[in-house]
Amino acid sequence: MIGIQIQQYAAQKGRFRLLGNSSKAQSFDLKRGRVGLEVALWLVISLILMAPLLALMTSSLVPALGVPLTWETLTFSAYDEMVSRQGMTRRAFSNSLLLSISAALLLMVLSILIANSLRKSSAKISTWLLSSIEIPYALPGVVLAIACILLFAKPLPFINLALYGTLWIIFIAYLARFLSVALKPVLASINEMDPSLEEAAQIAGASPSRRLIDIVLPLIAPAVGAGGLLVFLTSVNELTVSALLWSAGRETLGVLIFNLDESGDSILAAAIAVLVVLMVFVLMMLLSLCARYLPKGVVPWQS
Q: Any transmembrane segments, and where (predicted)?
Protein backbone atom coordinates (compact mmCIF):
# COMPACT_ATOMS: atom_id res chain seq x y z
CA MET A 1 0.00 0.00 0.00
CA ILE A 2 2.87 2.38 0.80
CA GLY A 3 4.47 1.63 -2.56
CA ILE A 4 1.20 2.24 -4.40
CA GLN A 5 0.71 5.57 -2.62
CA ILE A 6 4.23 6.69 -3.54
CA GLN A 7 3.61 5.73 -7.17
CA GLN A 8 0.35 7.67 -7.32
CA TYR A 9 1.95 10.72 -5.68
CA ALA A 10 4.78 10.70 -8.23
CA ALA A 11 2.37 10.25 -11.15
CA GLN A 12 0.31 13.27 -10.11
CA LYS A 13 3.27 15.65 -9.98
CA GLY A 14 3.37 16.34 -13.71
CA ARG A 15 0.34 16.54 -15.98
CA PHE A 16 -0.03 18.11 -19.40
CA ARG A 17 -3.30 18.96 -21.10
CA LEU A 18 -3.72 18.03 -24.76
CA LEU A 19 -6.25 19.29 -27.29
CA GLY A 20 -5.83 16.47 -29.81
CA ASN A 21 -4.38 13.06 -30.53
CA SER A 22 -0.74 12.71 -29.44
CA SER A 23 0.02 9.37 -31.08
CA LYS A 24 2.62 10.83 -33.50
CA ALA A 25 6.12 10.12 -32.26
CA GLN A 26 8.78 12.81 -31.99
CA SER A 27 11.63 12.33 -34.47
CA PHE A 28 15.30 12.97 -33.68
CA ASP A 29 18.18 13.47 -36.08
CA LEU A 30 21.01 11.26 -34.80
CA LYS A 31 23.43 12.31 -37.55
CA ARG A 32 26.78 10.47 -37.17
CA GLY A 33 25.66 8.52 -34.11
CA ARG A 34 22.85 6.73 -35.97
CA VAL A 35 24.92 3.78 -37.26
CA GLY A 36 26.53 3.06 -33.90
CA LEU A 37 23.22 3.29 -32.06
CA GLU A 38 21.48 1.00 -34.55
CA VAL A 39 24.26 -1.59 -34.27
CA ALA A 40 24.03 -1.46 -30.45
CA LEU A 41 20.24 -1.83 -30.54
CA TRP A 42 20.40 -4.81 -32.91
CA LEU A 43 22.95 -6.47 -30.63
CA VAL A 44 20.68 -6.00 -27.63
CA ILE A 45 17.66 -7.32 -29.57
CA SER A 46 19.67 -10.33 -30.72
CA LEU A 47 20.80 -11.07 -27.17
CA ILE A 48 17.45 -10.77 -25.39
CA LEU A 49 15.06 -11.91 -28.16
CA MET A 50 16.60 -13.75 -31.09
CA ALA A 51 19.11 -15.92 -29.19
CA PRO A 52 16.52 -17.34 -26.72
CA LEU A 53 14.07 -17.93 -29.56
CA LEU A 54 16.69 -19.79 -31.61
CA ALA A 55 17.59 -21.88 -28.56
CA LEU A 56 13.92 -22.71 -28.06
CA MET A 57 13.46 -23.72 -31.69
CA THR A 58 16.65 -25.80 -31.64
CA SER A 59 15.52 -27.67 -28.51
CA SER A 60 12.17 -28.49 -30.11
CA LEU A 61 13.76 -30.05 -33.23
CA VAL A 62 15.99 -32.67 -31.58
CA PRO A 63 14.96 -36.10 -30.22
CA ALA A 64 16.34 -35.46 -26.72
CA LEU A 65 17.65 -32.58 -24.66
CA GLY A 66 21.39 -32.06 -25.16
CA VAL A 67 21.52 -33.70 -28.60
CA PRO A 68 23.13 -31.31 -31.14
CA LEU A 69 20.93 -30.24 -34.03
CA THR A 70 22.15 -31.75 -37.32
CA TRP A 71 20.47 -33.03 -40.46
CA GLU A 72 20.58 -36.52 -38.95
CA THR A 73 19.01 -35.48 -35.62
CA LEU A 74 16.46 -33.06 -37.06
CA THR A 75 12.95 -34.27 -36.21
CA PHE A 76 9.45 -32.84 -35.89
CA SER A 77 8.24 -35.62 -33.64
CA ALA A 78 7.66 -33.24 -30.72
CA TYR A 79 5.30 -31.11 -32.81
CA ASP A 80 3.54 -34.19 -34.15
CA GLU A 81 3.12 -35.51 -30.61
CA MET A 82 1.72 -32.28 -29.22
CA VAL A 83 -0.53 -31.34 -32.15
CA SER A 84 -1.81 -34.71 -33.35
CA ARG A 85 -1.85 -36.94 -30.30
CA GLN A 86 -2.13 -34.76 -27.23
CA GLY A 87 -5.69 -33.53 -26.67
CA MET A 88 -4.56 -31.33 -23.80
CA THR A 89 -2.65 -29.12 -26.28
CA ARG A 90 -5.83 -28.16 -28.11
CA ARG A 91 -7.62 -27.64 -24.79
CA ALA A 92 -4.82 -25.44 -23.47
CA PHE A 93 -4.79 -23.29 -26.62
CA SER A 94 -8.58 -22.91 -26.68
CA ASN A 95 -8.77 -22.19 -22.93
CA SER A 96 -5.97 -19.61 -23.01
CA LEU A 97 -7.33 -17.86 -26.10
CA LEU A 98 -10.85 -17.79 -24.69
CA LEU A 99 -9.71 -16.43 -21.33
CA SER A 100 -7.21 -13.88 -22.67
CA ILE A 101 -9.41 -12.48 -25.46
CA SER A 102 -12.49 -12.30 -23.22
CA ALA A 103 -10.52 -10.64 -20.42
CA ALA A 104 -8.93 -8.14 -22.83
CA LEU A 105 -12.26 -7.13 -24.41
CA LEU A 106 -14.11 -6.80 -21.12
CA LEU A 107 -11.27 -4.89 -19.45
CA MET A 108 -11.08 -2.48 -22.41
CA VAL A 109 -14.72 -1.55 -21.80
CA LEU A 110 -14.28 -1.38 -18.03
CA SER A 111 -11.14 0.75 -18.32
CA ILE A 112 -13.01 3.36 -20.39
CA LEU A 113 -15.88 3.59 -17.90
CA ILE A 114 -13.64 3.53 -14.81
CA ALA A 115 -11.15 6.09 -16.17
CA ASN A 116 -13.96 8.46 -17.16
CA SER A 117 -15.52 8.11 -13.70
CA LEU A 118 -12.23 8.57 -11.83
CA ARG A 119 -11.47 11.74 -13.77
CA LYS A 120 -14.66 13.31 -12.43
CA SER A 121 -14.33 11.96 -8.88
CA SER A 122 -12.72 13.62 -5.89
CA ALA A 123 -9.02 13.05 -5.20
CA LYS A 124 -9.73 10.95 -2.10
CA ILE A 125 -12.15 8.61 -3.89
CA SER A 126 -9.83 8.28 -6.90
CA THR A 127 -6.87 7.43 -4.68
CA TRP A 128 -8.85 4.78 -2.78
CA LEU A 129 -10.22 3.16 -5.94
CA LEU A 130 -6.86 3.15 -7.73
CA SER A 131 -5.20 1.57 -4.70
CA SER A 132 -7.85 -1.16 -4.61
CA ILE A 133 -7.44 -1.82 -8.35
CA GLU A 134 -3.64 -2.01 -8.19
CA ILE A 135 -3.40 -4.36 -5.20
CA PRO A 136 -4.23 -7.58 -7.15
CA TYR A 137 -1.51 -6.76 -9.70
CA ALA A 138 1.07 -5.73 -7.09
CA LEU A 139 0.60 -8.90 -5.05
CA PRO A 140 2.16 -12.21 -6.15
CA GLY A 141 -0.10 -14.26 -8.37
CA VAL A 142 -0.20 -17.19 -5.94
CA VAL A 143 -1.58 -14.88 -3.24
CA LEU A 144 -4.41 -13.80 -5.54
CA ALA A 145 -5.04 -17.43 -6.48
CA ILE A 146 -5.30 -18.49 -2.82
CA ALA A 147 -7.71 -15.60 -2.19
CA CYS A 148 -9.89 -16.80 -5.08
CA ILE A 149 -9.83 -20.36 -3.76
CA LEU A 150 -10.92 -19.22 -0.30
CA LEU A 151 -13.63 -16.99 -1.79
CA PHE A 152 -15.06 -19.46 -4.32
CA ALA A 153 -14.39 -22.81 -2.64
CA LYS A 154 -18.05 -22.97 -1.64
CA PRO A 155 -20.98 -22.37 -4.02
CA LEU A 156 -22.09 -18.77 -4.34
CA PRO A 157 -24.93 -17.88 -1.96
CA PHE A 158 -28.52 -17.57 -3.21
CA ILE A 159 -27.72 -18.97 -6.70
CA ASN A 160 -25.83 -22.05 -5.39
CA LEU A 161 -23.33 -21.87 -8.27
CA ALA A 162 -19.86 -23.37 -7.77
CA LEU A 163 -17.02 -21.60 -9.62
CA TYR A 164 -14.15 -23.61 -8.17
CA GLY A 165 -12.74 -26.03 -10.73
CA THR A 166 -14.17 -24.11 -13.70
CA LEU A 167 -12.75 -21.57 -16.13
CA TRP A 168 -14.84 -18.88 -14.47
CA ILE A 169 -12.62 -18.73 -11.40
CA ILE A 170 -9.54 -18.24 -13.64
CA PHE A 171 -11.41 -15.61 -15.64
CA ILE A 172 -12.35 -13.64 -12.52
CA ALA A 173 -8.76 -13.84 -11.28
CA TYR A 174 -7.54 -12.52 -14.66
CA LEU A 175 -9.97 -9.61 -14.46
CA ALA A 176 -8.77 -8.68 -10.99
CA ARG A 177 -5.08 -9.07 -11.81
CA PHE A 178 -4.99 -7.30 -15.20
CA LEU A 179 -7.48 -4.48 -14.64
CA SER A 180 -4.59 -2.26 -13.60
CA VAL A 181 -2.70 -3.15 -16.82
CA ALA A 182 -5.65 -2.09 -19.00
CA LEU A 183 -6.54 0.96 -16.90
CA LYS A 184 -3.11 2.60 -16.59
CA PRO A 185 -2.66 3.76 -20.21
CA VAL A 186 -6.33 4.78 -20.51
CA LEU A 187 -6.21 6.78 -17.29
CA ALA A 188 -2.98 8.49 -18.33
CA SER A 189 -4.48 9.39 -21.71
CA ILE A 190 -7.80 10.66 -20.38
CA ASN A 191 -6.10 12.79 -17.70
CA GLU A 192 -4.16 14.60 -20.42
CA MET A 193 -7.35 15.79 -22.13
CA ASP A 194 -8.24 19.44 -21.70
CA PRO A 195 -11.58 19.73 -19.82
CA SER A 196 -12.62 22.51 -22.20
CA LEU A 197 -13.27 19.92 -24.90
CA GLU A 198 -16.11 18.32 -22.96
CA GLU A 199 -17.24 21.65 -21.53
CA ALA A 200 -17.76 23.03 -25.04
CA ALA A 201 -19.79 19.95 -26.01
CA GLN A 202 -21.83 20.24 -22.80
CA ILE A 203 -22.65 23.87 -23.58
CA ALA A 204 -23.78 22.74 -27.04
CA GLY A 205 -26.22 20.34 -25.39
CA ALA A 206 -24.36 17.02 -25.75
CA SER A 207 -25.35 14.34 -23.23
CA PRO A 208 -22.68 12.56 -21.10
CA SER A 209 -22.90 9.44 -23.28
CA ARG A 210 -22.60 11.50 -26.47
CA ARG A 211 -19.55 13.35 -25.07
CA LEU A 212 -17.96 10.04 -24.14
CA ILE A 213 -18.54 8.51 -27.61
CA ASP A 214 -17.79 11.52 -29.81
CA ILE A 215 -15.03 13.31 -27.87
CA VAL A 216 -13.39 11.14 -25.23
CA LEU A 217 -13.36 7.75 -26.95
CA PRO A 218 -11.67 8.83 -30.23
CA LEU A 219 -8.86 10.55 -28.29
CA ILE A 220 -8.20 7.66 -25.91
CA ALA A 221 -8.72 4.88 -28.48
CA PRO A 222 -4.95 4.29 -28.93
CA ALA A 223 -4.50 3.88 -25.17
CA VAL A 224 -7.53 1.55 -24.94
CA GLY A 225 -6.16 -0.60 -27.76
CA ALA A 226 -2.69 -0.69 -26.23
CA GLY A 227 -4.11 -1.64 -22.84
CA GLY A 228 -6.20 -4.45 -24.30
CA LEU A 229 -3.21 -5.74 -26.26
CA LEU A 230 -1.06 -5.74 -23.12
CA VAL A 231 -3.74 -7.70 -21.25
CA PHE A 232 -3.95 -10.28 -24.03
CA LEU A 233 -0.18 -10.75 -24.39
CA THR A 234 0.24 -11.01 -20.61
CA SER A 235 -2.68 -13.31 -19.86
CA VAL A 236 -2.32 -15.73 -22.80
CA ASN A 237 0.84 -17.16 -21.18
CA GLU A 238 -0.05 -16.45 -17.54
CA LEU A 239 1.16 -19.05 -15.03
CA THR A 240 1.30 -17.89 -11.40
CA VAL A 241 -2.47 -17.48 -11.01
CA SER A 242 -3.50 -20.38 -13.23
CA ALA A 243 -1.08 -22.81 -11.54
CA LEU A 244 -3.32 -23.02 -8.45
CA LEU A 245 -6.71 -22.54 -10.11
CA TRP A 246 -6.62 -24.99 -13.02
CA SER A 247 -8.26 -28.40 -12.94
CA ALA A 248 -8.50 -31.38 -15.29
CA GLY A 249 -9.68 -30.16 -18.68
CA ARG A 250 -9.07 -26.52 -17.70
CA GLU A 251 -5.38 -26.31 -18.55
CA THR A 252 -3.88 -23.07 -19.85
CA LEU A 253 -0.76 -22.72 -21.99
CA GLY A 254 1.40 -21.55 -19.12
CA VAL A 255 0.30 -24.47 -16.96
CA LEU A 256 0.83 -26.97 -19.80
CA ILE A 257 4.37 -25.78 -20.57
CA PHE A 258 5.29 -25.70 -16.87
CA ASN A 259 3.91 -29.20 -16.19
CA LEU A 260 5.69 -30.67 -19.23
CA ASP A 261 9.01 -29.13 -18.24
CA GLU A 262 8.64 -30.18 -14.60
CA SER A 263 7.85 -33.77 -15.63
CA GLY A 264 11.04 -33.96 -17.74
CA ASP A 265 9.41 -33.49 -21.17
CA SER A 266 11.46 -30.40 -21.98
CA ILE A 267 11.39 -31.11 -25.73
CA LEU A 268 7.59 -31.17 -25.76
CA ALA A 269 7.52 -28.01 -23.62
CA ALA A 270 9.83 -26.28 -26.11
CA ALA A 271 7.58 -27.31 -29.01
CA ILE A 272 4.53 -25.85 -27.28
CA ALA A 273 6.46 -22.66 -26.51
CA VAL A 274 7.42 -22.28 -30.18
CA LEU A 275 3.77 -22.75 -31.19
CA VAL A 276 2.78 -20.03 -28.70
CA VAL A 277 5.34 -17.64 -30.21
CA LEU A 278 4.03 -18.46 -33.69
CA MET A 279 0.44 -17.87 -32.57
CA VAL A 280 1.28 -14.45 -31.09
CA PHE A 281 3.20 -13.53 -34.26
CA VAL A 282 0.25 -14.45 -36.48
CA LEU A 283 -2.16 -12.46 -34.32
CA MET A 284 0.12 -9.42 -34.44
CA MET A 285 0.33 -9.71 -38.24
CA LEU A 286 -3.46 -9.83 -38.45
CA LEU A 287 -3.65 -6.70 -36.29
CA SER A 288 -1.17 -5.00 -38.60
CA LEU A 289 -3.34 -5.84 -41.61
CA CYS A 290 -6.39 -4.42 -39.84
CA ALA A 291 -4.58 -1.28 -38.65
CA ARG A 292 -5.78 0.89 -41.54
CA TYR A 293 -9.40 0.16 -40.66
CA LEU A 294 -8.90 1.15 -37.00
CA PRO A 295 -8.38 4.60 -35.41
CA LYS A 296 -4.79 5.79 -35.66
CA GLY A 297 -2.67 4.53 -32.79
CA VAL A 298 -4.92 1.64 -31.72
CA VAL A 299 -2.23 -0.76 -32.95
CA PRO A 300 0.83 0.61 -31.11
CA TRP A 301 3.49 -0.46 -33.63
CA GLN A 302 1.49 1.12 -36.47
CA SER A 303 1.20 4.60 -34.92
A: 39-62, 97-116, 128-152, 158-176, 215-236, 267-287
